[in-house]
UniProtKB/TrEMBL annotation:
It comes from the Bacteria. Keywords: Endoplasmic reticulum, Glycosyltransferase, Membrane, Transferase, Transmembrane, Transmembrane helix. It is a multi-pass membrane protein. Coiled coil: none annotated. This is Glycosyltransferase RgtA/B/C/D-like domain-containing protein. It is found in: Endoplasmic reticulum membrane.
Length: 396
């Protein structure tokens, strides 16, 4: 076992201790709906509750495992979530180890403490199982195992429908990589075929269902929402701030020497100010106990803060884009990131999980000091969020 793996295991022990000691003694937000659905299934009632907008195959698995363990207290279903979290950690170790002589424990730690993931690790949510399937899908497609990758993407979509967007993007990415490497359009189409078939089958179901959502469809209609893209970039600016600082001098030099960037900056400002809006009822001011809603509603009601946020978003995004990638084709991820969220009517940080994970994996590494500071920064944010949620101070 390498020293890097030992260091990551020590980091993992600390993370588990934090998650255990501050574990909320109440059902956190949507967790109450998932637990109620699981309880009904465990009692033999197959009714699909309206608050559950995903397929309930995962809930059926929870119910079956709960009977096998057996589980009596609803919150004890978090033991099953802990099993999924364990599988997530094993997958992280496998992906980070692939092709590397030395295990990059700082990268694995950054993925573990990614703030859009860490607070949900022990909770009964659908996001982590879906994310695990998506990461496995990405890894399989990168390994040119396109059929199994597409099937894993289908499994992710069965768990959580928005996964279909990432399956589509990963399929296009695989075809793009194939074409740039072999300049063979027929081969590229063949590579994409398994993913396209899966997407067409799900698309047919969604057309038949008249929505991508099950249960309550009224709040989950597909629509253009640029604010989701803006908020994702603002969150990236905060989460990856040490990298922004690392790239700040280079970014500022680029900004003052490239006149076209000034044109982009000035042209984007009215677009941002006029299209930044809070339209979904779940993002309303009545739910400002959620940090994302508080942020959104503060920005949208104070044009000064909105203008400051635009400057921050523009500069920080430019800094992050300037971070070198492991391969040239990985830069296409900066097109995939906004595409993955702008069709979502609800502004929700959980939609950003897969994009942030892929970006961390695809970028080149900086010095040990920079990577260590980034790990410490992300761990501080994640543990603070988790502690605040457990104390009912706010929700994420």
């Amino acid at each position: 076992m390498s020293s890097g793996l030992y260091k990551f295991l020590l980091l993992l022990i600390g993370a588990v201790a934090c998650l255990w000691l501050a574990l909320p003694d109440f059902a956190v937000v949507d967790e109450q709906f998932h637990l109620e659905q699981i309880k009904r299934l465990a009692n033999g009632d197959p009714t699909h509750l309206p608050n559950i907008t995903t397929f309930i195959y995962l809930h059926q698995l929870y119910a079956w495992l709960g009977q096998w363990l057996p589980i009596s207290d609803l919150l004890d279903y978090r033991l099953i979530s802990a099993m999924f979290a364990g599988l997530w950690v094993l997958l992280l170790i496998r992906v980070v180890s692939a092709g590397n002589i030395l295990f990059d424990w700082k990268l694995a730690g950054q993925l573990l403490f990614l703030p859009v993931i860490f607070p949900y690790l022990p909770l009964v949510y659908t996001d982590l199982p879906a994310l695990s399937c998506l990461l496995l899908c990405a890894w399989l497609m990168y390994q040119k195992r396109f059929i199994t990758g597409a099937l894993t993407g289908a499994l992710a979509t069965w768990v959580r429908q928005p996964s279909l967007i990432w399956l589509g993007l990963l399929t296009l990415w695989a075809g793009y990589r194939c074409y740039t490497q072999q300049t063979d359009a027929f081969r590229a189409v063949k590579v994409m075929l398994p993913g396209v078939v899966v997407m067409l089958l799900f698309a047919g179901f969604f057309v038949f269902n008249d929505s991508v959502a099950l249960g309550d469809k009224s709040h989950h209609r597909v629509s253009l929402n640029l604010t989701n893209g803006y908020f994702m970039l603002l969150m990236a600016a905060v989460i990856f701030m040490p990298l922004v600082v690392r790239q700040s001098n280079e970014t500022w030099r680029l900004f003052i020497t490239s006149r076209w960037l000034w044109l982009v900056f000035l042209a984007g400002m009215p677009l941002y100010l006029n299209t930044f809006e809070v339209s979904h009822p779940f993002n309303g001011t009545q739910l400002n106990m959620f940090l994302r809603n508080l942020t959104l509603n503060t920005l949208v009601t104070h044009w000064g803060w909105l203008l400051i946020s635009y400057v921050l978003l523009f500069f920080c995004t430019l800094a992050l884009i300037s971070c070198p990638m492991r391969r040239p084709e990985f830069r296409a991820l900066w097109l995939a990131l906004p595409m993955s969220v702008v069709m979502m009517p609800l502004v929700e940080q959980r939609y950003y999980m897969m994009g942030f994970v892929l970006w961390l994996l695809c970028r080149q590494r900086f010095t040990d000091t920079v990577e260590g500071v980034l790990l410490l920064w992300m761990a501080l944010i994640s543990t603070s969020l988790y502690w605040g949620i457990s104390q009912r101070w706010f929700y994420f």
